[in-house]
């Protein structure tokens, strides 16, 4: 600046045109890259609603704290209606976090702005790398929530070698981060075959009035009373929980136990970031096949699946998910499906046996265990 003073140019401001400030002979510049300045710029873009010049915007605000590459990053993606819910997960994860927020409508940027104007909300994101994604609404692609694309954005902005992808409704146990960063990282570094450490997940009924469980000991009575239950106990998460409660006495001293891959399984896991080469398949939108497809890929690559015994993640029971835009109202009109499209493609690459548990140490024994799950006790 010709007056020798430093100025701040916010994101989205490409030139100086104020009557009180002329920009010429610039000697130094501070570029303000903050959440609120980013929101302000996107807000202006959304307010114009000029379909001819509208552009997609994706902007990342880096965390103010750096972490070691040998750390574990928690990755989450969600729309603005999940901002409050994610606070519980953020509160128990002391390590690196990357968050991707999808603006499903023009009005979402207003809600996002109001959220961060509340006292203390900006401070919650000081150590979080945040990416805000505004699609090009005129293309109408935003009517299908791009869940796997957003997950991939979060993974790509993570700076560590180990990744834990969750959904915004889930809350991990408070000691999971410490266990993962100190115990699991060394194991993942030398795992041969490669391993995925699975985090069991449960649902808590909305009418439950007590303290949410943070340990297996606290969880067990809720399971027995029916206040907590297995999240999708069939193919979705059944393989995880059969061993969690059937085999506790057998593996009492082990911090984790092995389970075999089963078709349509969709576990949450902590892995080396190499597990995301290739990334989640972005052709999956909304719900259905998004996580299943990646677990199938890891199995085809020979990954071993190890379930943690003393840690889990929970979420509050909720009615049927209402996705952004048209979402799942267009039942049967998905552009890309797991069985019709993805599975045949994978069979061409990995062979017809790709759903056989390739990395499992004792697949026949594990299958027999699942068949006898009725004899288990908690």
Automatic annotation (TrEMBL):
<keyword id="KW-0472">Membrane</keyword>
<protein>
    <submittedName>
        <fullName>Uncharacterized protein</fullName>
    </submittedName>
</protein>
<keyword id="KW-0735">Signal-anchor</keyword>
<keyword id="KW-1133">Transmembrane helix</keyword>
<keyword id="KW-0325">Glycoprotein</keyword>
<dbReference type="InterPro" id="IPR051292">
    <property type="entry name" value="Xyl/GlcA_transferase"/>
</dbReference>
<dbReference type="GO" id="GO:0042285">
    <property type="term" value="F:xylosyltransferase activity"/>
</dbReference>
<dbReference type="GO" id="GO:0016020">
    <property type="term" value="C:membrane"/>
</dbReference>
<dbReference type="GO" id="GO:0035269">
    <property type="term" value="P:protein O-linked glycosylation via mannose"/>
</dbReference>
<dbReference type="GO" id="GO:0015020">
    <property type="term" value="F:glucuronosyltransferase activity"/>
</dbReference>
<keyword id="KW-0812">Transmembrane</keyword>
<dbReference type="InterPro" id="IPR029044">
    <property type="entry name" value="Nucleotide-diphossugar_trans"/>
</dbReference>
<dbReference type="Pfam" id="PF13896">
    <property type="entry name" value="Glyco_transf_49"/>
</dbReference>
